[in-house]
Design brief:
Distance between the termini of chain A: 14 Å
Largest interface: A-B, 39 and 39 residues
Strand order of the largest sheet of chain A: 10-9-8-11-13-17-15-16
CATH class of the largest domain in chain A: Alpha Beta
Low-confidence stretches of chain A: none
Oligomer: homodimer
CATH superfamily of the largest domain in chain A: NAD(P)-binding Rossmann-like Domain
Number of strands of chain A: 17
Order of helices and strands of chain A: EHHEEEEEEHEHEHEHEEEEHEHHEHEH
Helix content of chain A: 25-40%
């Protein structure tokens, strides 16, 4: 069994290959060809922490993956990151453990941001006037970075709650080659941008229906657990097309769950990303459509990116 | 994060300490003080394999454990063991992965056999005339080895299906200091022994009710999944005391499940091992009682033995 640290993984992972594997994974998931046992979850109330264990096997693959993710929200006061974790790659042919990817959660961030890139390829407007970003954290950064491969637009407007965080994000995005505006008003993002990424841990709507420009696409990645919400449910209900990574997950606790539970949309109208990627459902159909993607994260993404990293690391040895 | 292989783990694990931790774990489990998420299971039909992921946290402990176990039943033809696996020890204080115990399933064998020792301490007759063993595999060996700490009896009679396997077991048990008899008739075991270990993958009853001597104790560890069975359900129904590691597991798929499902015993009459160890229920009450222990294996055992191994390994560094 080989052990690889975050640095080695980051050095060898090929993002384009990973994107292609993720797309295959979404298609297989929506075709019912992925074994995904129920998520295991722990709550460590005494330490304000939690842990979840997600596992997946894409049938036919000769490896499967077990991912352990932890979140301990008092860690920053101890000088530690809030999030940690690892992925195990095991043989689906003989059961032997093949690799421990001690990525500290990095591969999860990457597969989440690459899902945003995949979604943008099928739903973003042809002409992006500005990219809008809600949030200033690591996922808000990776999403922007990865969108460079999808659009030539180099205008970005970013919203955050703190001037200091916005200033840091400004420097980050400028170094990527963007012209950067920052704002403390979410409405300014909606007015300027027609490709918007929501990557916050918000528990209340940040973007309102009436603010949106026609033809805008929104990718919401923040609502990955019950109680989280970034969008006005009326905005969700007003979207012309809603694409989700997983209908069961998104209708239960994703961004669209609030509108589903309020009866404002019917989950039968949701379309899984895998069904768009395999051509059985359309992506964006015309430039005036408002489109929304809700990404809660599915375990097949972990299996696919772990497999991709493992092969790259093996090849480098 | 530290990585330890099977050899290092076996070198440093203290069996008496492990036994004490397991007893604590059973008591905590039965007191509802253990978080045990549902088991994750994969089926790899193309390779005649399976995998299960068991996780547990004993509340108050500063570590928790995730165990991955694989069984690939065509492996021996490939020159590999059927079973493999590992345990991860993580901090319940900050979420960081602390250790990978690459034990290849060894700790699972040990914690299972130590549970047999714990059970024997509370249920075995005071005077053991002979130990009976059904099965000749690695668990049938460990169980016998660990019973040496519980009884001074050094007579053993072992049943198996093959003369070759019995011959190997004979040599193994003799080297442990036992006078050994082997037999191809399970009835001979019941007639000679009053402390019997059943450690086979049988799917049909091997021991019948009418064969048993008064005062016999039986520990059944083979039935760890649906469809497995080592005992006549009438024997189960005739036992004066039945102790199980987990009422939910044993009544669903353990040795006693057959009698429960047939209505021959009521699961309300089952007593968990933790409730005997903490003194709230009696163990053996007199020498004529027939007692039965059904051990399906609970994840808290993994958490406790992994913690024990981890501390021993840390201390050795």
């Amino acid at each position: 069994m080989k052990v690889f640290n975050r640095q080695a993984i980051a050095q060898h992972l090929d993002l384009d290959d990973a994107e292609a594997r993720l797309a295959q994974g979404f298609m297989a998931y929506s075709a019912g060809k992925v074994q995904v046992p129920p998520v295991q979850a722990f709550s460590f109330a005494q330490a304000n922490g939690d842990c979840c264990i997600k596992s997946a096997w894409l049938e036919g693959s000769d490896t499967f993956t077990v991912k352990v993710s932890t979140g301990f929200y008092d860690n920053p006061a101890l000088g530690l990151d809030s999030n940690d974790g690892l992925m195990l790659v095991l043989s689906a042919c003989n059961g032997q453990p093949l690799a421990l990817l001690a990525d500290q959660g990095w591969l999860t961030s990457v597969r989440t941001a690459l899902a945003g890139r995949i979604v943008a390829r099928v739903l973003a407007p042809a002409r992006v006037e500005a990219i809008g970003v809600l949030g200033t954290g690591s996922q808000a950064r990776l999403q922007l970075e990865y969108l460079k491969a999808v659009t030539e637009c180099r205008e970005v407007i970013v919203w955050g709650r703190s001037e200091a965080a916005l200033s840091d994000y400004h420097d980050f995005a400028e170094a990527l080659g963007f012209n950067v505006r920052t704002t403390l008003e979410p409405q300014a993002v909606a007015q300027a941008a027609n490709l918007i990424i929501c990557a916050t841990p918000s528990r209340e709507p940040l973007l309102m229906r009436d603010w949106l420009r026609p033809g805008t696409h929104i990718t919401a990645v923040g609502a990955d657990a019950s109680g989280k919400q970034e969008l006005d449910p009326w905005l969700v209900a007003a979207a012309d097309r809603i694409v989700v990574d997983s209908i069961p997950q998104c209708s239960q606790y994703g961004e669209v769950s609030h509108a589903v539970k309020a009866g404002m949309i019917d989950w039968l109208g949701l379309v899984e990303l895998g069904r768009v990627l395999d051509g059985s459902n359309p992506g964006r159909e015309h430039e005036a459509q408002i489109t929304l993607a809700d990404l809660t994260g599915v375990a097949v993404q972990d299996a696919q990116i772990a497999r991709c990293a493992y092969e790259a690391l093996l090849g480098s040895n």
